[in-house]
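Researcher: Sequence recovery benchmark, item below. Answer with residues only.
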């Protein structure tokens, strides 16, 4: 009798704990997005939070942590309680190649349309083709700036080796070198270009619609999160809804994002969002393998990868809405 009583009490305790857990609201969480306020790739997350899309999908995402970029952002996602974030695909591919237990589960943005390639107004250079034999400033080797000029050169039929890439430590150093005619061109994020009032200070030779399809952002997930497929599917579905809102209600999205991208004036945020939508910058999440193949190719050119990688083992599209898995 005592044994039956103890078994009943134990079962009751387990049931009570389960009911309490089931009744408890989902814990509010933040997710990491690389360079959130300096790169418009993360805009769908700001829209999804403001419009309540995450909560409608059943996840309580209340804020965004801005990641530093590269491997630092990937490591931060791995260490986070959520286990999801948006980083550069190059950093994700490099981390997976080194054995990190993550997968690319979505494409965030599809091209380098959030950047511009610039020269000084008095430069004789009119296009990327004219950069053959010239100097191009980058912040550091293997940086997005270096990947940008490699991809841009190949797009227009120029061998990247024919453009001298000069590493200057940071963006400020690259711009100073450009202004002093030490180098002939560089690239700059579109947001910073607009913030600096650079439209009159520099001249764009390759803008959003012309820049190559080299994705700057991808959603990555840890194996721990992938064991909770309902949560991951909800995250990706809510982000997709935000991308659709941006494309269908671009002006309203710009108003929502004005606070994210301040001190950029609201009118410039609106212009930027319309330009990015026109350039088909945002992805609803579909994993377009040619984009990742281009990324891996450029990574080899700049020395981020020594050997070929099997990208099919680095991605998992099964958490996306069914029509995006094809």
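Model:
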């Amino acid at each position: 009798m005592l044994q039956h009583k103890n078994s009943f009490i134990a079962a009751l305790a387990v049931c009570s704990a389960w009911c309490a857990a089931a009744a408890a609201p989902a814990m509010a969480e933040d997710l990491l997005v690389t360079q959130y306020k300096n790169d418009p790739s993360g805009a769908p997350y700001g829209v999804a939070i403001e419009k309540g899309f995450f909560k409608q999908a059943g996840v309580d995402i209340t804020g965004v942590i801005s990641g530093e970029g590269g491997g630092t952002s990937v490591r931060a996602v791995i260490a986070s309680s959520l286990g999801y974030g948006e980083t550069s695909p190059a950093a994700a591919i490099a981390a997976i190649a080194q054995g990190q237990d993550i997968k690319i589960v979505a494409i965030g943005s599809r091209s380098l349309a959030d950047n511009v390639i610039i020269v000084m107004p008095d430069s004789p250079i009119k296009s990327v083709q004219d950069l053959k034999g010239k100097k191009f400033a980058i912040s550091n080797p293997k940086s997005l700036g270096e990947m940008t000029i490699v991809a841009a050169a190949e797009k227009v039929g120029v061998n990247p080796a024919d453009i001298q890439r000069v590493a200057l430590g940071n963006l400020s150093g690259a711009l100073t070198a450009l202004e002093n005619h030490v180098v002939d061109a560089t690239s700059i994020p579109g947001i910073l270009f607009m913030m600096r009032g650079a439209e009159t200070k520099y001249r764009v030779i390759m803008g959003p619609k012309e820049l190559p399809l080299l994705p700057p952002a991808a959603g990555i997930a840890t194996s721990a999160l992938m064991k909770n497929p309902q949560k991951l599917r909800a995250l990706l579905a809510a982000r997709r809804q935000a991308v659709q809102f941006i494309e269908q209600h671009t002006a309203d999205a710009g108003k929502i994002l004005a606070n994210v991208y301040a001190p950029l004036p609201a009118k410039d945020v609106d212009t930027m969002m319309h330009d990015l939508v026109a350039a088909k910058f945002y992805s609803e999440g579909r994993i377009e393998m040619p984009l990742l193949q281009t990324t891996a190719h450029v990574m080899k050119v700049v020395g981020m990868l020594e050997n070929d990688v099997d990208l099919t083992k680095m991605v998992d599209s099964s958490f996306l809405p069914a029509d995006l898995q094809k």
